[in-house]
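Appendix B. Extra example for self-study. Work through it before the problem class; the solution is given directly after the inputs so you can check yourself.
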Amino acid sequence: MQETRIALRNMGKIIPGRIDDYIAAGGYEALKKARLTDRMELLELLERSGRLRGRGGAAFNTGMKWSSAFAVDSKEKYIICNADEGEPGTYKDRVIIESDPHTVIEGMLIGAYAIGADTGYIYCRGEYAKSIELLNKAIAQVEEAGLGGGVKLSVAAGAGSYVCGEETALLESLEGKRGEPRLKPPYPTTSGFRGKPTVVNNVETFATVPCIVEKGAAWFRSLGADSYPGTKVFSLSGDVVNKTCFELPTDVTLRQVVEDCGGGVPDGKKLKAIQVGGSSCAFLLPEQLDTAMDFDSMRAVDAALGSGAILVIDDSHNMVDIMVAITSFFAHESCGKCTPCREGTYHMAQVTQKIADGQGTGKDLELLKRFVEYLPANCFCPLGQSAAIALASAIKLFPQDFAVRLQKEDE
Amino acid sequence: MSKTVKEDAILLNAMHAAQARFGYLTDEAVAELAAAFGLTRAEVVSIATFYSMLQMTAPPPVCIQICKSAPCHVAGAREVIAALEAELGITMGETTADGRYRLEYVECQGQCQDAPTILLNGRLCSGVTPGRVSALLREGVE
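Solution. Structure tokens for the complete assembly:
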């Protein structure tokens, strides 16, 4: 299985801290081309012709987002890169930034031109010290090279809060507040950072933009699935031979990613489950390996592409133990703004731990089944709404794993 | 509220810088941040305590944080935790009697290609095995 690299096109070929390397590899040509292009034409290229969909997980049409911010009459607009990668199992944005920070910045500068923004921020998770350093350096190099075009870019370091990956929580955090999500609408494109029109895109999305501008929409649409063209960077972890990132056309199957690229499950063990998209997503079974890896194909099997994280799990694990890790993650990361999430994730983690410890009964399992219906229906933001997806999936697909941990109930 | 810092200053960046300077967000650091950003000290504390990387108390000499997210669990974090607990004679969340070592959980660090991950005084250690735990703790003391 051959990789098709767009976001990672310069990985290993250039020294990431050197703008000259990036320019020698054709970098910033797309920005020059974009700035000579009429804005409407540029927006059209991304929205209708290119159909680039956001690579952070929600898969919203990037051009539509840009057009929406462009259409608002405001002197003050912002372009923001969401580099707050926190979904467990996801490390693709870090690999993109650490391989080629300038492609992200070039994508942002194209976006800034397209919507008419003169200020941009990269909100990078605080744990990624190396990424923050590289981005700051790259911004200084862009300014020194006179490529900024009057756009002021800065890096803001997150401080260990998963919910800040949700775009409105990110905006709150960037404004110097607790990272609690806002009610939508209004969407950031009309009222975002400091209440002004703001485009927030993922690292991988921005990293893809320069190539589309340079090579055109037809080229981009020729790659991957019709409804989700282009490539996706997958980050592999767990019980798989090659734990690394692969950038592949979106019409590949899960089998091609896990077996051909990933090398399958090591040590002669058997594949038990795959969690695509991170801890907020469902599990897939070995018989679903031929599912295509685009947004809509994943959704059609009640799974999600999410961030493109792929956690491979072999048959030596009981899924209840994995659910302890996942439920406690959400309990820790719930921001506390809404009661259903704050209390729901906490109790879900407690009851899951109880079952994992062999202290639970059938009543506890019934309680978990109520949580997995209650949370998606009642939580304020995507964190709580998706906090029980993996648990619901594990209970449905692996009832035996739960059954063996339950105590006999008193009659 | 009048801000004495420039309009585009980012509070979290300033909090990270203060923590690097003082070791944690001391009363002095909180007062400085409050003055600089036109906030009350209570507001600064309310914001800082939202973020798990920002500390309001002095960290112990050796702080060991272990990732317990799903990819690290699948890669064997539980065995590493057991080794750390046995080595230090404490359980997760505790500090040794001499106040020297603390074991705590941390969420996904985005290093899942080389799990399990631990942070030793903030320094990233990847691909940790139970057998490497003793050596890592010795490094932490140095």
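Self-check: Chain B touches chain A at residues 8, 10-13, 15-16, 37, 46-47, 50-54, 68-75, 78, 105-115 (CB under 8 Å). If your reasoning did not lead you there, revisit section 3.
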